[in-house]
Design a protein that fits this description.
Strand 11, helix 8 and strand 12 form a beta-alpha-beta unit. This protein has two domains: about 140 residues, Glycogen Phosphorylase B (Rossmann fold), CATH 3.40.50.2000; about 140 residues, Rossmann fold (3-Layer(aba) Sandwich). The strands form three sheets. Strands 2-1-4-6-7 form a five-stranded parallel sheet. The chain has a five-stranded parallel sheet with strand order 9-8-10-11-12, with helices on both faces. Helix 1 crosses helix 11. It starts with a strand and ends with a helix. Helices cover about 35% and strands about 15% of the residues. It has about 300 residues and is an alpha/beta fold. The protein has eleven helices and twelve strands.
Length: about 300
């Protein structure tokens, strides 16, 4: 069978702090004939400049300006099309109209249950594409675990109330460290002392326990995958979607609530054998099921199935 010819329309994320789209792009190159397009434009004009006619057009979330260029004319093109949904809580009505008006054949949301809740009429077009970890970056660096408790990233109480509560509870306590979000600027413009890429992964690898939450939306956030991939014990909330992905309380991570996070953090700092056992199982679970390579292969297979329906 001839390799899939895929046009991936995405902004260049290679120099951004959050590189999951870039990692996916690089992995897709190994599994299909990939053409990547970064600029705004009309799809007919773009297609005329390519070295091949794609079998499928994939948009990296048209509603996320940091991730996807502005593309016109999609509805007039008969090539099968799909779009990745990142944060689908914004522009819900506009997204629904876009799917219909631009003839989007498939939607690849990162968050299954949120999509089913907010886009029930489009479930037949949904193909779940959970987050993934680049295990060449997020891995066990064998660094001495000299941090007891670590939090990193956005706090925003209205979006992450549990993170905000945990930060207030542990702030200035011995053994606890918090690093703010580095922002979304280019890496060369990042603030001194911020952690991105391998520095971010190594800092996670240094800690015994990592605390976070899945937002008010209950998303299966990227941080869940990154932390486990660094062989660090994750303390965070759970739900059905996360459990279905292999995040299991007492097996691959530890479930917490606003009522018990402090007690469980203290317990797992003291109980090293149990902490290491759970962290290690989580580490191998993510490497086995949720690597970027795994996700790229899954995406290619799903797109091939869509194309076969058109033939």
């Amino acid at each position: 069978m001839e390799k899939l010819k895929l046009l991936f329309i995405t902004k260049d994320q290679s120099n951004k702090p959050e590189k999951s789209s870039y990692y996916l792009t690089e992995e897709l190159k190994k599994h299909c004939q990939l053409m990547v397009w970064h600029q705004d434009g009309d799809i007919s004009n773009i297609l005329s400049q390519l070295s091949f006619q794609p079998d499928f057009i994939l948009l990296n979330d048209w509603f996320a300006p940091k991730l996807c260029p502005n593309i016109n004319g999609l509805k007039n093109n008969r090539i099968p099309k799909g779009m990745i949904f990142h944060d689908m809580s914004n522009h819900v009505h506009e997204r629904k109209r876009f799917i219909v008006n631009e003839n989007i054949d498939a939607v690849f949301p990162h968050y299954r249950d949120a999509f089913k809740k907010w886009y029930p009429k489009f479930i037949h077009r949904m193909i779940w594409l959970p987050h993934h970890a680049n295990i060449d970056v997020y891995k066990d660096y064998q660094i001495k675990k000299d941090i007891d408790l670590l939090m990193m990233g956005a706090i925003a109480p209205q979006l992450y109330p549990l993170r905000s509560l945990m930060l207030k509870s542990f702030y200035n306590k011995p053994g606890f460290i918090y690093h703010p979000h580095p922002g979304y600027t280019n890496e060369k413009d990042r603030k001194p002392g911020s952690f991105v890429g391998k520095d971010y992964a190594k800092e996670i690898n240094r800690t015994k326990l990592f605390l976070t939450c899945n937002s008010i939306f209950g998303y299966s956030l990227l941080k869940y995958f990154e932390v486990l991939a660094c062989n660090t014990l994750l303390l965070a909330p759970l739900n059905k979607e996360l459990s279905d992905l292999g995040f299991v309380d007492g097996e691959t991570m530890v479930q917490i609530t606003r009522h018990d996070f402090h007690e469980k953090a203290i317990y797992y700092i003291k109980n090293e054998e149990e902490r290491l056992r759970i962290a290690n199982k989580g580490y191998y679970m993510v490497r086995r099921n949720h690597s970027t390579e795994n996700r790229a292969k899954m995406l290619v297979k799903n797109i091939e199935r869509i194309i076969n329906r058109f033939e």
